[in-house]
Hints:
Layout: H1 2-51, E1 56-61, E2 71-80, E3 83-93, H2 100-105, H3 111-115, H4 121-135, H5 161-173, E4 184-189, E5 198-207, E6 210-220, H6 227-232, H7 248-262, H8 288-297
Antiparallel strand pairs: 1-2, 2-3, 4-5, 5-6
Amino acid sequence: MRKLLSLLLVLVMMSSLFIGCAKDEPAVVETTAAETTAAETTAAETTAAGGSLADGIYFATQPTFDAESGWKTVVTIEVKDGKIVNADWNGASVTAGKDKKTTSMDGEYNMVAYGKAQSEWDVQAALAEAYLVENQSFDGLNYSDAEGHTDSITGVSIHVSDFVDLTNEALAAGPVGTGKYVDGSFYAEDADYGDSGWKENASFTVINGFIVAANWNGTSKDTEKDKKTASIDGDYGMVSIGKASSEWHEQAALVEGFLVDTQDFEAVTLTDAEGHTDAITGVSIHVGNFIELAKQALKLR
Length: 301
């Protein structure tokens, strides 16, 4: 009898152990399935970010120049076979002339000498560009402060937030191709001083075939100030003396902005022989000479 009871007890214990193991097994399977699903989702997101873009050239610029530095960011992205194959982070100055990369390469930006940076701006920009091409997005990049610096890219101490934002803006907008102008910096000026005593000049910066900065200015034989500075300082007196709606430098900025927005000199139609136009709201000064200088600078004639 005792042997029978002992045998029954052993059977009950073995049955309980078997049932307990059977209950644990599905939990292990569910955990594995969840991990696999998560991995597949991550891979799908990465593929979408790097493989679903339309081929072409993507382009974006900041709408205004930074009030402190005088620069604005310009981004050009090339996509081939659905993936980013080239990225160009550059900049244009409010005075036009050389783009930011060229300025840095020529030793004129001087981030190392004056800013005590570990490397020049163009060198650090190249590292950020390489990060984008390698990762196909900025999804894994983190900012270390409100200014947009990051510890995610080795060797980069400059703030990268403007590059990130403009890249996302360009990719969201779709490919736009290349503009109709030749890349570089361009300049032309009058051969001599006019009746007003000013010799006008025109400067342009072209990136990816688009005019990204235009600067209309002038020099005088009577003052060391350039025309814009004289206007800003109140020496030109177009409002107080000429009863104009705004000062010369303000109207010049409207003309510059119009050309950057339209990329078309033919859109500035002249209404008289003095070179006035009705095409640009708020501009009453004559613009004909500037348009001629611009065409000369960009070798359009």
